[in-house]
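User: Run a structure prediction on this.
Assistant: Running it now.
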Amino acid sequence: MQKRILIFLIIIIFCLGFLVAKEAKAGETHNVWGWAWSENLGWISFNNISGLGPVNYGVHIDSDGNFSGYAWSRGTSNNLGGIGWIKFDPAGPYPSTPSYSACLDLPASISTSEACNGVGDYTVSGWARAYRAIAPLGQTLGGWGGWIKLGGGGSTYGVTLDATGESPYEFHSWAWGGDDTDEKAVTGWVSFNDEDFDGSPGPVDYQVVTDLVITPANNPPTAAISCNPSCSEYVGTSLLLMNNSTDPDPGDQITISDWYQKGQTQDDSAYVLKLHCTISGNPLCNYLAPLSVGAYTAKLYVEDEPGASNEATKDFEIKRDIIAGFMCSLDDITWQVCESLTPTPEMGNTIYFKDDPSTLGEYSVASEGATITTWAWTKNESSFGSNSFHVSTEVTAASMTIELTVTDTASRTDPVSHIIGAGTMLPLPEWREIPPAF
């Protein structure tokens, strides 16, 4: 009777330990814990916190993805049918490819010294081995070499790690516990997560997890420049350079943008800092470049929060813009600057205006590569004359504002105005009859 009670208590203690272990975290020595399920042997514990007495054992993954340590194949709930210790960093030679012990394939940005296949997809490959099958302990279990393949080497199966979300991360899928050469399957298929049974739960809720610190390396931002309206053959006196830079890391952000410029008005071989923007203001700032006619190069330097940087350059050209201008005359022969004109302050006097883009002077200049096609004249905001570069008008007020707006074949437009001052207008003579004196 006492023996039955003892067995019953052992089973109860094991079950409680198993349930608690699923919620436990690994200790400082090992960072993998939980339970896997062998189709032939039953439960495999990956850490002593999983409920197997005081022995300090467990499986560990280092920062390069290499496994080490031991799991315990306990078999059924009463320690029947297991194969004992399973070593996760056994020495070779290995039965077949891959030629290394168990390894987690971390992205190269996280680890550069791992022995895995270098894909960086968080797959597990390589070998573990049942310790009792390794000499000199003997007990090779009917000639089986003890090898358990976790994946790789051209296999169509393999264990994977779901490294999304927050730690702990869950392992999934299957390992194979049998020699590839003679297909002896002592352990058989080993499931690392109960969800792997065709999407439905396995024997009970179980999983193998790790709290390995996975901190992906920071990827640098990508600097990019565009122009508004265009980087090529822009006509105007300023150009808006747009900061189109991006950072590929989720949650990361660009914190510094520096605009540099060279060309035309400075040493063409040296960039000069024009604008510095940081996270305290607008780190993705645009730059409005005040420019004269000529060729330039802009450089944009960007830096993200962890300190990675990138830069881009953009060549652009500022072309001459259209400039309106005209001259004035009192006799249609002698032309002068309009403000120097002194017409006789009498109503009805004629003043002449001319624009001659083919002649140097105060005349209009079309934008680079274009010709002027349209002239629009106004006197005190009232249109006069026709679409001609040579017009005239009469003096109608003491002060007249003459404005000319020109348009060229590049659809560029520019207005210019001059004030013509006729001084104080003399009144017209008045007639009054005076009777003679007698």
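The chain has three domains: 13-210, 225-319, 327-421.
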